[in-house]
Amino acid sequence: MAEIEIDNFDELQEVEQDVQDVQETPEPQEEKEQVSDKEKLMRSLVSDDDEVDELTAAHIRQVLDAAPRWFLSQWKMLLLILAGIFLYITNGYQAQVEMMKETELEAELKDWRYRSITRVSELTLLCRQSQLEQKLREQGDSTLTPSKVAPFIINVKD
């Protein structure tokens, strides 16, 4: 080993810090290797290549280690979100069915209105005085004749 002369305490602390930094450098390299393993695993899972790296249970465990803990701690929120999604979809389908029924009933109501208008106009035509007189003449009833005296207006006092 080489000997280094240090005149003051500050220089000694700087040298010791440099020695510690040199000794600590291999650990980040290991972390980088772990990250690169995870990245490699994720890329192999997502890639469309025919060549897939061999996946081991250890690699899969490394990737999925954090996920179960998070899901277990958030299960109530996830259940609430799923219930909300379920209710939203169910409500949408129910609203759609009700709108279809409403459209069908409106079409049926419109049809009945047109039928009613037709029947009222046919009845009005058949009940007119001139039509009745003409039918009676065709049947041979000659006793019915139009009045020659104008109708009287009766005033009623309250």
Task: Give an account of the 3D structure.
The chain has 158 residues and is an all-alpha fold. It has six helices and no strands. Helix 2 crosses helix 3. The longest helix is centred in the middle third of the chain and has 53 residues. It is rod-shaped.
Write the layout of secondary structure elements.
Blueprint: H1 9-24, H2 26-46, H3 57-64, H4 66-73, H5 75-127, H6 129-139
Helix pairs in contact: 2-3
Parts with pLDDT < 50 across at least 5 consecutive residues: 27-34
How far the N terminus sits from the C terminus, by CA atoms, comes to 135 Å
Overall outline: rod-shaped
**Average predicted confidence as pLDDT:** 76
Strand fraction equals under 5%
Total number of beta strands: 0
Helix content: over 70%
DSSP helical segment count: 6
Element pattern in H and E: HHHHHH
The major β-sheet equals: none
Structural class: mainly alpha
Radius of gyration over alpha carbons?
A: 49 Å
Offer a quick outline of the entry:
The protein is an all-alpha fold and 158 residues long.
Features:
158 residues; mainly alpha
